[in-house]
């Protein structure tokens, strides 16, 4: 089967979060199962820095806009792991400082930028090979199912091609003023509440959910949560309407990128049988954060996160003064909302002997934290899938999580430290602190702790099973269309 992926992020070229890891690893797992996969990604400035002169595959693809056309090139991103990557090159849209916007706000032409990406993927596919199925990721690629179901509806080569929409985070839906309809040359009859309209805005993701043949999200629990008012972000009714076609598939992890036995970013390698290297990684991490003379009995707690209310950054701030009284040191890596960046830096200044923060996006440091910490915190308010708790398990770093979405599906706390982590249910910092204290209590029991570390490391997080589940979804939507 030929599957075309369309997304706004893909590791290692363009990453701001977990979607990039999925869009990179899932195609390779599908190729391993014998399928042909092509991935389309914008040719951002960040990509051009790494791949400055790619071969031109298509010199000019016409993308119409009101009163004028834009012309994009399709560039060859190469074949890796048997997956063909293509870059969509439109300098005026993608040669920018950031992917989606600057700290002062989103780019005002994001509807046109990602609308163009989608139309370019459709048009390029007609020349390079019409797939059996399109697999689109988040709102940035939702215009593919929308366009296939509307302005491309009578195209004889696309007519029977289904699209699968994956939701990595329904908190971001691509909301734009109604004029976006005209800017993308879509018919106004799409702007109704049963299609793209959401409280007088054009909602890309809503359109994707309405028009896709199947919808998937990145954990079973989040697929249920999406259908509730609390987590549906205004689309719970739309998700409920499509519940028969909505499925949760838990992410795997890319064992070439995240594996303590081979990771080139960490100070020493280790395995479930031989944990000695983890001690060296711990020393290296403490050194990177400028801590000296930390006793082996003191727990090293790590955080790698987008700073946002979604991620429970406020919970971390709220427990900080009480946590600082415990026998631990806390290392934080992250970036995001300025408000939380400032608060966390202030907290670190208040507890210089216990808490350190690095405000940046740094993949190498993220690996060092996963390897060097003893405990990893993820107090998310909601978490569609979450990858860091899986990386933590794989690296023998025990996660403390809020029981939501993918965190609830993958982390289990049991009495006597029998599970693979610690979790709390309430929506409160106190419940979070208690869970961290339970983790610290177990940390002091070395035998129990090591058993828990080993249990997590031995779990199987390969992409094989999720990839096979995606294949079943593709087969279903293809059959339904034929
Ligand atoms: P989300 O996509 O919602 O931000 P996930 O847990 O699904 O959350 O994925 C986050 C991904 O981004 C992980 O691979 C994590 O290591 C990475 N990441 C987040 N913040 C940083 C950072 N400041 N530096 C490096 N990597 C980061």
Automatic annotation (TrEMBL):
GO BP terms, alphabetized: glycogen biosynthetic process
Record's signal peptide: none
Every Glycosyl transferase family domain range: 295-440
Species of provenance: Tunturiibacter psychrotolerans
Protein's UniProt name: Glycogen synthase
EC number: 2.4.1.21
Role according to the record: Synthesizes alpha-1,4-glucan chains using ADP-glucose.
Binding, ADP-alpha-D-glucose: 15
Catalyzed reactions per annotation: [(1->4)-alpha-D-glucosyl](n) + ADP-alpha-D-glucose = [(1->4)-alpha-D-glucosyl](n+1) + ADP + H(+)
Domain of life of the organism encoding this protein: Bacteria
Keyword vocabulary terms for this entry: Glycogen biosynthesis, Glycosyltransferase, Transferase
Keyword Repressor recorded: no
Pathway annotation from the record: Glycan biosynthesis; glycogen biosynthesis
InterPro entries per UniProt: Glyco_trans_1 (IPR001296), GS/SS (IPR011835), Starch_synth_cat_dom (IPR013534)
Gene expressing this chain: glgA
Family: Belongs to the glycosyltransferase 1 family. Bacterial/plant glycogen synthase subfamily.
Pfam families on file: Glyco_transf_5, Glycos_transf_1
């Amino acid at each position: 089967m030929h599957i075309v992926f369309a997304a706004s992020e893909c590791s290692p070229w363009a990453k701001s979060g977990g979607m990039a890891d999925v869009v990179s690893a899932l195609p390779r797992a599908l190729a391993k199962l014998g399928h042909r996969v092509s991935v389309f990604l914008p040719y951002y400035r960040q990509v051009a820095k790494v791949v400055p002169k790619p071969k031109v595959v298509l010199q000019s693809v016409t993308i119409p806009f009101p009163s004028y056309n834009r012309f994009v090139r399709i560039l060859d991103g190469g074949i890796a792991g048997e997956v063909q990557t293509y870059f969509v090159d439109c300098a005026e849209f993608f040669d920018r400082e950031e992917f989606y916007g600057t700290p002062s706000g989103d780019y005002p032409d994001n509807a046109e930028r990602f609308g163009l990406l989608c139309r370019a993927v459709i048009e390029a596919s007609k020349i390079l090979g019409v797939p059996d199925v399109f697999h689109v990721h988040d709102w940035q690629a939702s215009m593919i199912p929308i366009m296939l179901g509307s302005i491309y509806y009578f195209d004889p080569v696309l007519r029977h091609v289904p699209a699968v929409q994956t939701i990595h985070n329904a908190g971001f839906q691509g909301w734009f003023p109604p004029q976006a309809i005209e800017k993308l040359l879509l018919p106004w009859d799409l702007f109704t509440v049963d299609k793209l309209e959401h409280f007088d805005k054009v909602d890309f993701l809503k359109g994707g959910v309405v028009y896709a043949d199947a919808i998937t999200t990145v954990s079973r629990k989040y697929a249920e949560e999406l259908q509730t008012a609390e987590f549906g972000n205004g689309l719970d009714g739309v998700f409920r309407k499509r519940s028969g076609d909505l499925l949760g598939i838990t992410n795997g992890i890319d064992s070439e990128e995240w594996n303590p036995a081979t990771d080139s970013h960490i100070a020493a390698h280790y395995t479930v049988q031989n944990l000695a290297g983890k001690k060296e990684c711990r020393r290296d991490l403490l050194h990177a954060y400028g801590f000296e003379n930390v006793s082996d009995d003191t727990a090293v707690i790590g955080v790698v996160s987008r700073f946002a209310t979604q991620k429970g950054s406020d919970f971390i701030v709220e427990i900080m003064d009480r946590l600082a009284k415990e026998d631990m040191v806390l290392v934080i890596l992250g970036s995001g909302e300025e408000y939380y960046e400032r608060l966390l830096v202030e907290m670190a200044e208040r507890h210089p002997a216990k808490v350190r923060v690095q405000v940046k996006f740094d993949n190498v440091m993220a690996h060092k934290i996963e390897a060097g910490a003893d405990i990893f915190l993820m107090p998310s308010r909601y978490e569609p899938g979450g990858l860091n708790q899986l990386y933590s398990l794989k690296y023998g770093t025990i996660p403390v999580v809020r029981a939501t979405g993918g965190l609830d599906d993958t982390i289990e706390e049991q009495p006597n430290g029998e599970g693979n982590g610690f979790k709390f249910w309430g929506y409160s910092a106190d419940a979070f602190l208690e869970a961290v204290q339970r983790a610290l209590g177990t940390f002091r029991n070395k035998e129990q702790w090591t058993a828990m570390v080993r249990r997590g490391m031995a779990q199987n997080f390969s992409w094989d099973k999720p990839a096979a589940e995606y294949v079943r979804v593709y087969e279903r939507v293809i059959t339904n269309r034929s």
